[in-house]
Amino acid sequence: MERHRLGNHNRNARPDTAPIVRRIFQHREQGESLRAIAGTLNAAGVPTKRGGDLYASTVSYVLKNPKYKGELAQTFDVEGVKTEAESLRIVDE
User: Which helix (H) or strand (E) holds 81?
Assistant: First the structure.
């Protein structure tokens, strides 16, 4: 699964990634485990960035990533700054 490349100033949701992210959130809302979601997507042939299988840890990363909810978090020294990034929003909270 591709990550948003913020270092390259790409601050828009990727159209090829968005449907996969939505599916992950939908499966989780239906109560599926991380492992079950990964298995379902692997069985469906959902592509990953490197062409391998999805794992529960990958699914967890997607579910915890604030960018998919339209939030950007940056840390400067010790303080963190949280800003809205609607162009990255793929799912609602």
Answer: strand 79-84
Measured CA to CA, the distance from residue 69 to residue 72 in angstroms comes to 9
- Spell 68-78 as b/e; 16+ CB within 10 A means b: bebbbeeeeee
Report if pTM > 0.70. Answer: no
Phi, psi of 81 (to 5 degrees): -120, 130
Residue 3 is encoded by which pair of tokens? 């990550």
Domain residue ranges of the chain, discontinuous segments joined by +: 14-88
Angle (nearest 5°) at CA 92 between 29 and 81: 120
Burial class (CB in 10 A: 0-12, 13-18, 19+), 36: middle
Q: Is 75 helix (H, G, I), strand (E, B) or coil?
A: strand
Question: Could you tell me the pLDDT band of residue 7, with boundaries at 50, 70 and 90?
Answer: very low
